Automatic annotation (TrEMBL):
Superkingdom of source: Eukaryota
Protein name: Uncharacterized protein
UniProt-annotated stretches for the region Disordered: 133-156
Amino acid sequence: MSINEAHKIKLMYGLAGGALGWGVSPHFRCASLLVAPKFLGKEGRLYLLTYVLAAIYDGPIANIRHNLDEVIRSVGCTVELQINHSRQIWKVSTAPLRAMLRDMVRGGRTLNAETRNVSQAFAGLNEQVASEAGYGGKRPRRAQGRQAPSTQQEYEQKTKLRCQREYFSAQLVVKV
C-alpha cells in the first residue's frame, strides 16, 4: 500500500499518541477497551457504515462527479465549436452567391438603361413594320387557322411587297 508522506506522519503521531495514552492514563486504556465492543453493536456498525460511505463518496464518487463535469464541459465546447464552424462554412459557401446577387442588383440599373437604349434603337424598325405605307394596298394576311406571323416574317413579307411595287413602277417607267 502506497501512502503519501503526510498520511505517514499523521499515522505515526496517532500511534505515538495512542501508545503514550495507554502507557500513562488508565482512563484512556479503559475508554479504548470499551470502544471495541461498541463498534460491534448497532451504533458501531452505523459509524463504520458512515465512515465507509464518506470514504467512497470522497474517492470514486467524487472522481466520477469530476469526470462528468469534464464531459459536460467538453461536450459543450465541442457543440459550440461545431456551431461556429458551421456558421463559417455557411458564410464561405454562400459568399459567391451573395457576391453574384449583389452584382446583379448593381447591374440592374445598367441593364434597364441598356434595355431602353435597345428599345429606342429598334423603335424605327418597329414603326416601319407596323406601317402600311409603300405597298399598294396589299396588306399581308394570315391564313385562317394559322398563327400570326412573327415580326421577322411580317417584315420580310412587307419588304417583298414593297420591292414588287418598286419593280412594277420601274417597269412602267421603262415601257413608257
